[in-house]
């Protein structure tokens, strides 16, 4: 069963201890969240009720955040993926709040990360083509002051997964 434990990292984080059945359930759900409870129970060698209780506890513990359908960008005509490296000379709270809001309002930003090092942020932007990226770029710099932007066009997606490696120890 999942059991909460504290992690001494200096921040308020919770780690969940997972046993072998929890790990099997999570692996199955990461591959196909549309599996029925019967199918999951059969594959992990347990009955439905205990499996349902484990899934419920994993949701309550925040291990399972949400279930989504993963769409094919090509099928939707979103053929251009850009990785956008952003450097800023602004580091105050007001700028950061405006920047965060600008990113949240733009559905073409499918990932955004604040980085350590020379680059402050990296965005993953999925759009139809270079013109669509330029519209995105012009809109963003019109809304938020940015010192330097470098856009890198992905020529080929080699690996893409939403599946996380599930640690044996729960850490």
Automatic annotation (TrEMBL):
Q: Is the keyword Transcription regulation assigned to this protein?
A: yes
> Which SMART domains does the entry mention?
HTH_ASNC
Q: Which InterPro entries match?
A: ArsR-like_HTH, AsnC-type_HTH_dom, Dimeric_a/b-barrel, Tscrpt_reg_AsnC-like, Tscrpt_reg_AsnC/Lrp_C, WH-like_DNA-bd_sf, WH_DNA-bd_sf
Gene3D superfamilies referenced in this protein's UniProt entry, alphabetically: 3.30.70.920, Winged helix-like DNA-binding domain superfamily/Winged helix DNA-binding domain (1.10.10.10)
Its source organism is Paracoccus methylarcula
The name this protein carries in UniProt is Lrp/AsnC family transcriptional regulator
Domain (HTH asnC-type): give its ranges.
Answer: 18-79
The processes (GO biological process) annotated in the record are: regulation of DNA-templated transcription; response to amino acid
Any single Gene Ontology cellular-component annotation:
cytosol
* Entry keywords, A to Z: DNA-binding, Transcription, Transcription regulation
PROSITE patterns the record matches:
HTH_ASNC_2
Lineage top rank: taxon:
Bacteria
Mention one GO molecular function: sequence-specific DNA binding
Which Pfam families has this protein been placed in? AsnC_trans_reg, HTH_24
